[in-house]
Amino acid sequence: MFLRLGEVPAEGLNAELSLEPDALAAKSINADGPVKGTFRVEKTGSQVLIKGSVSGCVRLQCSRCLTSYRYKIEEKIFIELRPLLAAGEGEEMELASDDLDVEFFRGDSLDLEHFIEEQVRLALPMKPLCSKECGGLCPSCGEAIGSDACACDVESIDPRWEVLESLRDSDRDKGKN
Question: Are 81 and 103 in contact (CB under 8 A)?
Fold first, then answer.
């Protein structure tokens, strides 16, 4: 959905947009239902302020056990936009710390779908985990550690460390005498 900036009244404008899973799948986002964006758009001179929220659910794959799980996204957004011409296209400029929160736009319209997609991507974890307690996959059988399908002895010692284990056992025996 494109929002023409000339149609934004002086008092601002409220907009709602819902993206279906198929639209997000085309952008490599596996949504689990529609993702909704609620925006308040205000113009102050040539600047545009967008406040609102993005919410929905996506399907992720756990980086430890590879199971698919549902991840809920609820993000508040505040975006300050300035026209690209104000940035001095092609010339270098020093950025102040408050310039880091500014985005730039070209033309006289904004793509609100882009802001939803961007906020969903920013909300995704770098290392998706189905739970904090996830043990990953068993190196012996390949099943999820702790599941009924894995009956392996996970307490087995790496053969490279067995010599050290025997030293620890002999120290314990010396302490008993």
Answer: yes
Instruction: Give the Cα separation of 29 and 21 in Å (integer).
Output: 8
58 occurs within a structural domain:
yes
Q: Which residue has the higher pLDDT, 63 or 152?
A: 63
With bands split at pLDDT 50, 70 and 90, how would you rate the model's confidence at 71?
very high
Same domain, 110 and 145: no
Mean pLDDT of 118-123: 92
Residue type, 108: D
- Specify the pTM: 0.72
Q: Find residue 55's DSSP bridge partners.
A: 36, 74
**Which of these, 118, 41, 119, lies nearest to 81 by C-alpha position?**
41
Specify whether 72 is located in the same domain as 158: no
- Going 81 to 86 to 90 to 95, the CA torsion angle's sign is negative
Q: Are residues 45 and 23 in the same domain?
A: yes
Range of the domain at 64: 2-123
In sequence order, what are the beta bridge partners of 80? Answer: 49, 102
- CA angle 63/68/70 to nearest 5° reads 105
